[in-house]
Amino acid sequence: MDLLPDPAPLATKLENTLLRYHSIADSEWRIARKTKDAVVWRKPSEEFSGYLYKAQGVVEDVTNRIVDHIRPGPYRLDWDSLMTTMDIVEVFEENCCVMRYTTAGQLWNIIAPREFVDFSYTTSYEDGLLSCGISLNYGEVRPNFVRGFNHPCGWFCVPLKDCPSHSLLTGYIQTELRGMLPQSAVDTAMASTLANFYSDLKKALKS
Question: Which CATH number fits domain 33-205: 3.40.50.1010, 3.30.530.20, 3.65.10.10, 1.10.357.10?
């Protein structure tokens, strides 16, 4: 079991990685799914044998409120249909913590419930915010769960210049679900999950 990391260098490295993802040229991405709420693209990950996914959509709310619903805290568990439990393991600062959470089974339980332990960091970005995370090898795995691993991931949320009450939300996700899974099942689940994330988030913000 690893010790918890020094948060400052990890936060800096994570932020720089997400900024690099955010500057990847459009031509490198391939569309994986398109809905009325979001477009999802993918490209081969540099971190593992799966894909780095990019999701983007306009959300009809202000940046701070959107990010409060995404980052670790009281809102996320209420609206995210994939997340079943969430515990804050350690708080380093107001914007920096380690959380343990579990997700429901997917694709008729072809993908069994997963557990993750993630370092999470939220910081300013342009006129908005960036909330990012990465998994840690920390703690014992709960019975009946497979420990998944999130390679560097995060959400950029910035107000639309011509309509500041709405925000452009762009996410980068590369989740290694682990376990014996067909890659096609993982790819289907990831694209669907990201599209559903936007529709679930929009419903929560309106309630």
Answer: 3.30.530.20
